[in-house]
Amino acid sequence: MREISPLQKERLNYQPKLAGVLANGINNVKLSLGEATASVANQDEIKALFPHVYGEPIARFSSEGTSLSNDKRNVGVILSGGQAPGGHNVIAGLFDALKAANNENKLYGFLGGPSGIVDGKYMEITDEIINKYRNTGGFDIIGSGRTKLETEEQFKKSLEVCKSLNISAIVIIGGDDSNTNACLLAEWMRANNTGISVIGCPKTIDGDLKNDQIEISFGFDTATKTYAELIGNIQRDANSAKKYWHFIKLMGRSASHVCLEVALQTQPNITLIGEEVEAKKQSLDEIVTYMANIIAARGNSGKNFGIALIPEGLIEFIPEMKTMISTLNDSLAVLEKDENYQNAAQDEKYSIITSKLDDASAKLFNSLPSTIKAQLLMDRDPHGNVQVSKIETEKLLIEMIEVKLKQMKAQGTYNGKFSSQAHFFGYEGRCAMPSNFDSDYCYSLGYNAFALIQSGLTGYLSSIKNTTKPANQWIAGGVPLTMMMNMERRHGEMKPVIKKALVELDGPVFKALEDNRTKWAINDCYIFPGSIQYFGPSSVCDITTITLQLEQEKSLVNV
Ligand code: FBP
User: Fold this and answer.
1) What residue owns the CA closest to ligand 1's atom 16?
2) Could you identify the atom of ligand 1 that is nearest to the CA of residue 176?
3) Nearest-CA neighbor of 262 among 528, 541, 543?
4) Residues pairing with 462 in the sheet
5) What domains, with CATH codes, occur in the chain?
6) Which tens digit of pLDDT belongs to each residue from 129-151?
7) Which end of the chain has a smaller Cβ tally under 10 Å, C or N?
8) pTM higher than 0.90, yes or no?
9) How far is it, in rounded angstroms, from Cα 45 to Cα 495?
10) What amino acid positions are annotated as catalytic residues?
11) CA–CA separation, 223 vs 218, rounded Å?
12) How close is the Cα of 259 to the center of ligand 1, in Å?
């Protein structure tokens, strides 16, 4: 029997490309610092909460500037939050930089996410271990978790664990919530003169951790290519059998970047974008009507099939739902400590909850199918987010569209047949074997994280820019985490968090969809992207996402 697949065997030998100056080796990297920075919003509150790490300058690495320290050190690394392709390469890059600086340096991986550092669960990452994980998907080398690091007790325990391993730097690989953790930990470590620095790396398939300094979060490239392959295959099937409408919900807890990118890669008949729904204040009924009209127009011309893409976070963008969910969140934060509520039967829970809602929200809640009601009441994640991946929006829409089409049939405006299939693509892409882009980008992010550590910086996010160019032109540096923060309501309280990047409706990526979607709705303009290629022509193997390409073209125009 095989131990690994032939492709994985080849990928273990792939040498990822390093960004620009990093390719000269860690000992030849020099640091320059820019001007002081400020947070994107709520400057006074963020400064008061992070007095020791607020406002640091942007860092940039090149072959000129201040030399990095060559202190011998041990580093701890944490994988945090949802899996994203390339996480193992971040660790590989960090490991290679750390060993290149001094072979006696050690890298410890904390197990199972942020709780690993608090509970002292770790393993030393050695050559033998890392070599089995190079260019592979998944976070299984050390595991991941969603524990929120925020209490004094957690910080103290983390410090003790670090002291026992002589660790002087921690790298947290995570999304917006995990890097908020990183910033809180950096602040605490500096406020307490521990000498331990904390560096983050931008991860999430959702693509919503990006800004002027972070062009793309890792994993977005591979995950969207994986979903695009699957959707292309479904489009071929739909176009062959011509009998089903496929409703495909795509991951992306808040922002609709995944849905938008996949739509541009595959050109389906319907694409919903949460941010547009919110901006146009569309009600659930209006969304259903929009979709039913397209289904009817196709059905009336004999096409009883099609593809609809639905972003996972849609439900929270529908204004009436958003209002209802926000009150639900606040009520549930109180009710989770209420034994009567906890022990109540499901129907009783619904009536307790509706008594806490205003009339409009209560009416909306009661109008939903009981499966959706139950899904809306499920536990929030440790960061206070609704677990939208568990809400079957695709099925809710199908149910409502069936009713709408029946009405249209009765009115004589629809004469087709409607038969549907519901899909949810999320977990299928999160651990895919990283594309060449994610392999190179992640390796560079990890290597660069060590350069930030050796620069003596803390509370920074590893940043690699100019990523639509070949890797030798990529620009390595770091961005202070406080620069990306604002205050948001979580678990019923205002908390500092990294601001999510939502789809910009006046940006070039959404415009590309807007300009084409009417044509795609009625005609069949499907694209079948096929699977990610790792070997072969560069025009196939090394292309990045359409989102990144369009955004970079725009930023070049702006320069
Ligand atoms: P991160 O923001 O932690 O990267 O996770 C993103 C995500 O994949 C979302 O798209 C999805 O809603 C969520 O994780 C699912 O979480 P879980 O893995 O806990 O089911």
Assistant:
1) 82
2) 2
3) 528
4) 478
5) 19-219+434-490 (3.40.50.450), 221-426+506-551 (3.40.50.460)
6) 999 999 999 999 999 999 988 89
7) N
8) yes
9) 10
10) 206
11) 9
12) 15
